[in-house]
Design brief:
The protein has 87 residues and is mainly beta. The chain has one domain. The protein is built from no helices and seven strands. The two termini are 23 Å apart.
C-alpha cells in the first residue's frame, strides 16, 4: 500500500496531530498501529497521539466516521494509512 513512499522522519515520542480540513468534523476517530500481524489501538487525546520512543518504522491507520445527529445512520467514512520513522 505504501510501496515506493518515504516515511516521515520524527523524533522519539513525537506528538502527531490528527485533523480533518472538513466540516462537519468526524463524529468518531480511531487510530491503529500495525505491528507484525496484529493491530493495536492507539490512544489519543485532544486530536494528538505520541509515536513510540524506540527507533524504527511504524505504520498507522486512521478511520474517521460521520454519523447523523441521532447517531443511528452513517453519513460517510474514510480510512487513511501513513508511516513514520522514529530516529
Amino acid at each position: 500500500m505504501l510501496q515506493g513512499e518515504t516515511p516521515t522522519v520524527v523524533t522519539p515520542g513525537a506528538k502527531i496531530r490528527i485533523s480533518f480540513n472538513y466540516r462537519p468534523a468526524p463524529t468518531q476517530l480511531s487510530i491503529q498501529k500495525f505491528q507484525d500481524v496484529k493491530t493495536v489501538e492507539v490512544p489519543f487525546k485532544e486530536g494528538y497521539f505520541n509515536v513510540p520512543e524506540e527507533k524504527g518504522v511504524y505504520y498507522y491507520g486512521i478511520s474517521a466516521f460521520w454519523k447523523s445527529d441521532d447517531g443511528i445512520n452513517s453519513e460517510g467514512d474514510t480510512t487513511l494509512v501513513f508511516f513514520v520513522e522514529v530516529q
